[in-house]
Amino acid sequence: MRYSNDMQPVITLTSGPVNAYPDVLRGLGRVVLYDYDPAFQLFYEELVAKTQKVMGLSTRPLIMQGEPVLGLEAAAASLIATEDTVLNLASGVYGKGFGYWAARYTGNELHEIEVPYNEAIDPQAVAEMLRQHPEISVVCACHHDTPSGTINPINEIGAIVAEHGAYLIVDAVSSFGGMQTSPDACKADLYVTGPNKCLGAPPGLTMVGVSDRAWTKMKANERAPRASMLSILDWENAWSHKEPFPFTPSVAELNGYDVALDLYLEEGPENVWARHDLTARATRAGIKAMGLELWAADETIASPTTTTIRTPDGLDEQAIRDEARARYGVVFSSGRGETAGKLTRIGHMGPTAQPIYAIAGLTAYAGALNALGRKVDAGAGLAAAMAVIDAAN
Ligand SMILES: *Cc1c(COP(=O)(O)O)cnc(C)c1O
Predict the structure, then answer these.
(1) Count of domains in the chain?
(2) Ligand 1 center from residue 255 Cα (angstroms)
(3) Residue 5 counted as domain residue
(4) What family does this chain come from, according to its entry (predicted)?
(5) If pLDDT is split at 50, 70 and 90, which confidence band does 330 have?
(6) Are 192 and 294 in a shared domain?
(7) Burial of residue 358, with CB atoms counted within 10 A of its CB: 0-12 exposed, 13-18 middle, 19 or more buried
(8) Which of 3, 26, 36, 178 is deepest in the core (most CB within 10 A)?
């Protein structure tokens, strides 16, 4: 049989947005409270406290009412002042993209370290750049550049930036919740993440960890947005029921997000990270055993939340995804920008970070290749993936 495009997919194995946990979907169905109702204000206060616990923060985080691009753009607009000199780190499409925002807000030339999009940033190159340019005052980094499926050594980079004394903005949207990472561990001043990747909730919110000195800097920045959808400052006191919200919060999204945090805490973060890691390792083992190539130049930088497969020579990447969907009802992600056409992504995020989805993903990917005439040994791939899964039990 073939699944047509007007049918819902059977399994969505994308790298965000991802299918939400069933309990989260039920949470979205809770009553939509009036934002000035004391019950809602209490709920919001508790939700901020729960977010703080989940993010391992010593300061109170912020919840912004829009999917994470809102938080990322707001971070650039709020923290980067005209007099700042910015170093942007680009190992992929998101890292590169942040540089365009940074360039908009700094009055100085933007410095950038850019590596091929299948490699990671070398912390020593960051140290060298900071030595050459002592005036650099803000550094921007993407932890997991999702369209590449590669991880940057963010804690090492953070330590170097902290030693230099610059502020650090981190995009951790697609790593947080799926692996061990926290704002304090990488010494981030603004640490931006969201519920719609590894926490298994729908897109619609951003969580931002803010250091004390980042608050001070943003308040001193005359051009930091205020009375604006892009404002971080407007939300500083929104956690407290004593202050009104700057505008109506996304009540239903917050309801779903609350359940996602409960699930994460109940399962235990270590257990959640472990099944992301296991699913990714099983997938990588299967890809290699079928004689295919991982996109990441080195497996040590391959993401535990997304596996990227280099498009085999002579094949059209979109045709692979189309075939996987039509034959198996399985949806994968493409590359983006620079990586579009060059790779296919199998996401392991939230509910799909389960070893059985490694088997499903490999089957659909191999089946698509075989259908397109690029013969691979699917059995060898599945056996390799199962060996990884079995070894973990
Ligand atoms: C998903 C994601 C975002 C949010 O951006 P969208 O493309 O709108 O989903 C930001 N940064 C990274 C690294 C992401 O993976």
Answers:
(1) 2
(2) 21
(3) no
(4) Belongs to the class-V pyridoxal-phosphate-dependent aminotransferase family.
(5) very high
(6) no
(7) buried
(8) 178
In testing the pocket of ligand 1, which one of 93, 140, 174, 348 has its CB within 8 Å of the most ligand atoms? 174
**Do 218 and 353 share a domain, yes or no?**
no
Is residue 317 a part of any domain in this protein? yes
Indicate whether residue 68 lines ligand 1 (CB < 6 A). Answer: yes
- Residue 375 included in any domain: yes
Residue 69: CB within 6 Å of ligand 1? yes
pLDDT, tens digit (0-9, with 9 covering 90-100), for 58-77: 999 999 999 999 999 999 99
Identify whether 134 is preceded by a cis peptide bond (ω within 30 of 0): no
Domain identity same for 252 and 377: no
Question: What is residue 302's predicted lDDT score, i.e. its pLDDT?
Answer: 98
Atom of ligand 1 nearest to the CA of 143: 13
6 inside domain: no
One domain for residues 217 and 88: yes
pLDDT in tens, 265-323: 999 999 999 999 999 999 999 999 999 999 999 999 999 999 999 999 999 999 999 99
Reported residue count of the chain is 393
> What is the CA(93)–ligand 1 centre distance, in A?
10
Q: Is the CB of 99 under 6 A from ligand 1?
A: no
- Alpha carbon of 69 to ligand 1 centroid (Å): 6
Tally Cβ neighbours within 10 Å of residue 264: 22
Sequence-distant (≥ 6) Cβ neighbours of residue 298 within 8 angstroms = 119
Distance 146 CA to ligand 1 centre (A): 7
Q: In this model, does residue 243 exceed pLDDT 90?
A: no
- 379 lies in which domain range? 11-19+269-391
Q: Does residue 92 contact residue 142 with C-beta atoms inside 8 Å? A: yes
How much is the average pLDDT of 149-175? 98
* Res 12 pLDDT > 90: yes
pTM above 0.90, yes or no: yes
Report pLDDT for 93: 98
Same domain, 223 and 337: no
**CA 393/CA 389 separation, integer angstroms:** 7
